[in-house]
Predict the structure.
Amino acid sequence: MTREVPDVPPVGSSVEQDTRDNPGVRTIYPQDEWDVEQDNNIVPLTRAEAEKLFGSNVGRPSRVTPLKVVAAQMVLSLVVTLVWWLFSEHPASAALSAFLGGAICWIPSSLFALRLKGVGGQTSTALVVGEAIKMGVTLAMFVAIALSYHEVRWLPLLVTYLVALKTYWVALAFN
């Protein structure tokens, strides 16, 4: 699909063809769509429009804090650990592995939440550094467990880690 746009200078892969056919008209090819300047007149919503669109609680601060998310991660980790302990063929090692999987999630998350609370999280640098610390601690914990705990049951560890990791989405649902 192509379209012709008058008074737009030719750029990109269609330059040669445009200058041969008609120098005053540029043919816009699908691969050149991003070259055309667009009107980015973004108008913010008024308070009334936001309330109509999102409801009357649009201006209310979130009840979900990072520390509440960490607490929910801990609780879910313990629940999943209990499930592995009750229904596993090797309950002790499965439960310990599940608990460690949850801890791999909530320990770095708690460090991140405490950093945000202490620093204030008001700059993007604070968020980036906090997230880098969180990822580094998570990776270090995975490596430490893999190297030091030889009886680790990977399925309970990874399942519990993923359940705890997805707590963020559950917490957003209760916002």
